[in-house]
Amino acid sequence: MIDTTIDVINKLGLHARASGKLIEVTTKFRSSIQIGKGDKLVDAKNILSLLMLGAGKGTTLRLVIEGPDEDKALSEVQALFTAKFYEAD
């Protein structure tokens, strides 16, 4: 099990388009992927749950991944956040 944090650094935060891109990544994996603030974690494969987080720029989110492909899932999720969801600045 991986339990780490990740920072939202894109200008608009985890809005609809960014959440959609995160869903594209998370649904490729068999592992359970949860994201949230502190103990309030939601399914990172559910767009409504992601939007309800209200994670704006500067938010630090907790990321919990458990399953057979957890390392690859972590790598791809981190890459997406680092790339600022491929949005123009």
How would you describe the overall organization of this protein?
With 89 residues, this protein is α+β, with helices and mostly antiparallel strands. It has one domain (2-86): HPr-like (Histidine-containing Protein, Chain: A, 2-Layer Sandwich). Helix content is 34%, strand content 26%. The chain has a four-stranded antiparallel sheet, covered by helices on one side. Strand 2 (32-37) and strand 3 form a beta hairpin. Helix 1 (16-26) runs antiparallel to helix 3 (70-82). The longest helix is centred in the last third of the chain and has 13 residues, at 70-82. The model has no long low-confidence stretch (mean pLDDT 96).
How do the strands line up in the largest sheet? 1-4-2-3
CATH topology: Histidine-containing Protein, Chain: A
Percent strand equals 25-35%
Shape: globular
Q: How many structural domains in the coordinates? A: 1
Tell me about the largest β-sheet.
4 strands, antiparallel
Counting helices, strands and paired strands, the structural category is: alpha+beta
Average predicted local confidence, pLDDT: 96
Instruction: Note the run of SSEs as H and E.
Output: EHEEHEH
